[in-house]
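Students often ask why we bother predicting the structure of a whole assembly rather than each chain alone. The short answer is interfaces. A chain on its own may look different once its partners are present, and contacts between molecules only exist in the joint model. In this exercise we take two input lines together and write out one structure for the complete complex. Read the inputs first and try to guess which parts will touch.
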Amino acid sequence: MELDYDFMIADLPTVFAGLPNTLLLTAWSLLFAVTLALTLGTVILTGVPVLTQVVIALNTFIKGVPLAVQLLFCYYGMPLLCRWLDGLGVYHHDPRHIPYFWAAVAALACNFGAYLTDVVVSSVRAIDHGQIECAHALGMTRWQTIRRVIVPQGAVIALPGFTNYVIWLLKGTALASLINVSELLIAAQLSAADGYEYLEAYIDAALIYWAVCAGLECAMTKLERRVGTYRRQDVRQAAAISAHGADADDTSSGPSIPSTEPISAVRGATFAHDRAETPTPQPIGA
Amino acid sequence: MLELLPTVLPRLLQALPATLIYWFVPSVLALILGTLLCIARVGRKGVIYWVCTVVISFFRGTPGIVQLYLVFFGLPKLFALIGADIEDWQAGAFFIIATTLNLSCFVCEALRGGYLAVDRGQIETGLSLGYNRWQNFVHVIAPQTLRVSLLNLKNLEIAVMKDTSIAYVIGAACILGTAKTIISAQYGVGQLAILGIAGVCYFVLCAVLEAAFGAASHRLARHERKAVA
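Now the answer. The structure tokens for the assembled complex follow.
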């Protein structure tokens, strides 16, 4: 194929220079998304009367709207917000320097916050209820129960779903190029514009994304194995899978931890991106 | 927002057929291609297995928009090698190809997860009842795999429906692209409202899909319900 290989190799560092921005975008979005997810998840789990319904409705709506629409919405909304904050006197509005980076963070955080809310809710619901009753019986206060029983177990159950969304989020940051936030894909586009060698630059970008995502997935799989070792059920399923002659090392298709509730069981959780949990095999007619 | 609705909504809905095509064609093709990939992925670990694994890893590890650009810029060059000129294909064709490739890999993994959950004994029972491999696949493996994979497939189909919104970056028609055209034609007047309307359009499409898949999974689970009763 007719490719300018010299340019492709020469351009790799230029495209790579966009990676820190992509990672920064991912990290900030993730931070806010997790905060949002924990807050909204707590609201849903405690079942505050009106607030819960509002949160679920909002959650459902966000998941039903494409990320690109949300990014553009924040992009167009950012100048208005800046002007409004300027009017309040808390922010100095400069029309030439509108913080579009934070517009992208806001959109990504809202989008993935909604998905992560489902992860939080389904993970906590997946904890054996006997554990919580046990904690009460032992005389733990509500806060102690949360800190010592719910969080440590819920975090382990949530990890595979969480990993999936981190990778999904990293890939989602590529869409921030639609609103001209400087990141990897924009770096590729800009470097290619001179000689119209877009294909070469995009191949560079794809390779970098691939490497980062594969590395992230590998690291998270290791982490999952490490923190999940105490879960006997997990070990049992791994044994069951390997007994069937399949490779149990791939968490991307069938998660190794089977105990997250199917998302359909989570009240009001629609458009969930959660992976279908593969239930333990049971014969028909059991 | 309401005063914009009568003028904006009909124009957005003009892009609806294109959106539905960009959703439906890749969905069908990816189901076929994904099944083939899945067969390669659950089989013996030969050359085909590793090629499929690498390809799937690539398509799952890179953003959809990058793949879209790669197909849009790369496919004409690839076809030029065999002397075919596809430069004048419509942008939509490239979008469909890119989405199909991307979706196939995700469908493959979804199906593989479902296949691994099928009880080994079921497959052996089918064979012992005298089914040949093909009958066994159709009557035993496929229905059970599908039932387990359905939740994943639903998520994927909804994601594809939403991803049609980025078709406009290569110049294909879509609801979001139309919304952007209207916004720039009006010099940004009512831009948030127009985007909001486009968002609601996508939401409705996704809600319909969700309901359809809910009905389908209810039907596929009917054997188990009977068993419980």
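Check your guess against this: DSSP finds ten helices and no strands in chain A.
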